[in-house]
Structures are given as structure tokens and as C-alpha cells.
Fold this protein.
Amino acid sequence: MPVIPAQAEGDRHGPSRGAPVFVARGLCKSYGAGDAAVHALRDLDLDIAVGEFVVLLGPSGSGKSTLLNILGGLDAPTAGRAAWRDHELAGADEAALTVYRREHVGFVFQFYNLIPSLTARENVALVAEIARRPMRPEEALGMVGLSHRLDRFPGQLSGGEQQRVAVARAIVKRPDALLCDEPTGALDAETGRLVLAAIARANREVGATTVVITHNTAIAGMADRVLRMAGGRVVAAEANPRRRAPEELAW
Ligand code: ADP
């Protein structure tokens, strides 16, 4: 399995702290062919450091979800290279990507996708059962502030609580990477901050390298580094001198 050499100084969009765990070089993703082709990613370079909290901003259609899906092994690039440590993601077959996702990645999407006939604890336990070194479902639900909701069904929980169950489900396997696509997109500000607090805690306590896609520029304050995408490329990167707590964010 080819390994992309780690660069000493991060990518051309500014240094990232520590050794890179995600590395992309010349990453391209196109949908369709010929004149009708949509170029979702165009020659994108990226390094993300171990344990880093990255917020991805950018207009709709700029390629954020496509990038996240490739980093998470849900989708394959058309050209270029992408790797998670020594896992080459470009060109990996479906079986290898499945193992990569199962062992290393936790996902949180805008819509929670919980199983309605299972309680919060059972939804989280389902993932714990197939993980190599999971925490207990109760511990994961405690980390997101839901110790008092273990036996509720999704239909008995608010939207924000359901999303926190989804965060617990993503972190129960102690993932190396926590990838979140618009995790607060369907929530009001107060509820959204609780979900972000759960994600920040998971980043801190599980040590998961975290990428959060958002339209909401206020959320950028939580990040170690903010990457702005446009037209399928990273066009700017800024490091925050200080990470803000979700409670400090106003929108
Ligand atoms: P963002 O997350 O920034 O909104 P996306 O990564 O979802 O951007 O999309 C980037 C571009 O790729 C858009 O033009 C979008 O329409 C296109 N695209 C994404 N997924 C598909 C697909 N499955 N088939 C065709 N085009 C797609």
C-alpha cells in the first residue's frame, strides 16, 4: 500500500500543527463526463494534523461534502492522492474502505439517521458491538450530556438531543477521525451550541482529528484552523490564536 510522505511544513495553505494524518495532493473529483462534467474538486492539496479541529467553510457547491466524503472513505477521487496515515484512500477497493471507515472514522450528518425502534443506548450500542476498542455506550452518551436519556427512543427526544445521540454513536468507537457535515444545520442556535460542545469534547477527550463543515461562520471560532473552499479548492486557511468554547459563539 503506497504511503504519501508527510511534508515537514504542512501544505501551501499554511502550516498545521504536528504530524499530518490526512494528506491530499492534487485531489480531483468530477461527476459526469465531457461538457456535462461537474468538477467538484480541482487539484486540491491539504494536510490535517493529528488531533486538529478544522472547520471547512465555503459556499454551497464549493466541494466541502465531496472532500469530507473522500476523507471518510465514502467516495473515491477521480485523480490525485488522499491518505489517512498509511491508508491510501484513492484507488482503495470497497472492502478496504469499509474496514477503514469502521475502524477509524465517525460521521455526523445534518440529519441524525437514528433507528427509531431502538433507544438512545441501543443506537449507540449497535456501533460499539462492531468496534475494536469501544467505550461503553453509557460513557459515550455521558460525554454528550445525555446520561438522563439513555432509554428514550428517538421520537421522545428533541432534535438537538437526537443529534447528540448521533455524536455519541460516532465517538463510541473512539474514532481517529470525526467528520461532521453541517451538524447544526437543522438546529436553532442554543441547541446547536450543545451539539458543538459535544463535538468539541469528543475532539479533546477522544483525541479525534475533527473536521466540521458549516455554512455558519460563527462556528469557525471553535477551530484550530479554518479552511475556506471555493470552486473545488482550498482558497484560504487561517489558524485561530485561541479556540473559542461553543458557549462563546453568537449567531
Ligand atoms: P458543498 O458541500 O460545498 O455544497 P458538494 O461537495 O456537495 O459541495 O458539491 C460540489 C459540486 O459537485 C456541486 O456542483 C454539486 O452539484 C456536485 N455534485 C456533488 N455530488 C454529486 C453527484 N453525486 N452527482 C453529480 N454532481 C454532484
Notes: The longest strand covers residues 20-31. Confidence is low (pLDDT under 50) at residues 1-16. The chain has six helices and ten strands.
